[in-house]
């Protein structure tokens, strides 16, 4: 008795999918392990060269293959060493700039993602900030298991464009590293001080805030103080208030907190309504990895360095050169 038509169609579709998966794996092995070129693989598998190209692209998309360059190459180049020497850093990673800002950000994020696992040890508590830069690093991180690693969300939740919210950044990085994740289950900004204090006193929240304080390592970005900055777009501070802060010397935003060009805090009226890591808690870590690139990040990154918030930096050649040339 023949199988029902619908079942036969499903079985045939599954069989084609299995064959294609096998071909993708074979093409990947031939190219990356045996070193065959695409024409040789096409002949061996009796397929077109275009199919080989598509199979290799699909293998990369599925993360069957992850091509990395030893991060030490970018740590030992002259710009990186000059950054360490001039700014008193523990280490720096400087990747080649690309033609576009977007391309450069992707390079810096990928370089940071490959470097970060080498900076972590069993028992570490890694505090993770928010924003596009940190999100890009988390998305680019390799799938690997970091023994006894805890990832902690540093700031409360706030709606953010394109998935850059704090809980997304921390959860994504924890998933990539097979780590335990402690999210901060409160809003970043409350409507009044009393409500913020009540939430901080809640046992569950108090425990999460203790985890924030006890982080021995952090990864963050120094945001701009422009009217299109992340904190303005997220509704933490208004554009008018940001303009006012700039007249008072605002130079950078670190985990939602504003600092001047020397890295000193510039308290704003909403401080007592915010729940998250404080500026004091961002200092004196075993590792504070600041990631950033682009002309608009030069002054914020310099401010963060002067304030003692960064021990390690990941950036691009253009930004590193500009930071070394800038005197403030």
Automatic annotation (TrEMBL):
Identify the Pfam families for this entry: Sugar-bind (PF04198)
Q: Which UniProt keywords apply?
A: DNA-binding, Transcription, Transcription regulation
Q: Which domain of life is it from?
A: Bacteria
Q: Where are the transmembrane segments?
A: none
Domain named Sugar-binding: residues: 75-325
Provide the family line.
Answer: Belongs to the SorC transcriptional regulatory family.
Protein's name in the database: Transcriptional regulator
* Species this chain originates from: Parasedimentitalea maritima
């Amino acid at each position: 008795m023949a199988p029902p038509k619908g079942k036969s169609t499903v079985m045939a579709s599954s069989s084609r999918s299995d064959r294609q998966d096998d071909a993708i794996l074979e093409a990947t092995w031939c190219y990356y392990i045996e070193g065959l070129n695409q024409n040789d693989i096409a002949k061996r598998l009796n397929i077109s060269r275009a199919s080989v190209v598509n199979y290799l692209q699909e293998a990369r998309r599925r993360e069957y293959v992850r091509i990395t360059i030893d991060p030490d190459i970018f740590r030992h180049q002259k710009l990186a060493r000059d950054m360490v020497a001039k700014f008193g850093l523990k280490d720096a990673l400087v990747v080649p700039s690309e033609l576009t800002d977007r391309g450069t950000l992707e390079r810096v994020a990928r370089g940071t993602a490959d470097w970060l696992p080498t900076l972590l040890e069993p028992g570490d508590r890694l505090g993770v900030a928010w924003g596009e830069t940190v999100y890009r690093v988390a998305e680019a991180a390799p799938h690997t298991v970091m023994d006894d690693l805890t990832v902690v969300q540093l700031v409360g939740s706030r709606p953010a464009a394109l998935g850059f919210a704090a809980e997304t950044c921390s959860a994504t990085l924890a998933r990539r590293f097979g780590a335990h994740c402690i999210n901060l289950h409160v809003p970043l900004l409350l409507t009044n001080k009393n409500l913020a204090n009540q939430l901080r006193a809640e046992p569950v929240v108090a425990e999460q805030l203790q985890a924030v304080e006890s982080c021995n390592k952090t990864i963050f970005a120094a945001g701009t103080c422009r009217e299109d900055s992340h904190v303005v777009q997220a509704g933490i501070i208004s554009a008018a208030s940001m303009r006012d802060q700039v007249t008072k010397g605002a130079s950078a935003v670190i985990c939602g907190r504003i600092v001047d060009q020397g890295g000193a805090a510039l308290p704003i009226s909403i401080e007592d309504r915010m729940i998250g890591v404080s500026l004091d808690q961002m200092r004196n870590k075993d590792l504070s990895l600041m990631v950033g690139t682009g002309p608009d990040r030069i002054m914020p990154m310099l401010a963060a360095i002067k304030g003692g918030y960064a021990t390690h930096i990941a950036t691009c050649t253009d930004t590193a050169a500009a930071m070394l040339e800038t005197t403030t």
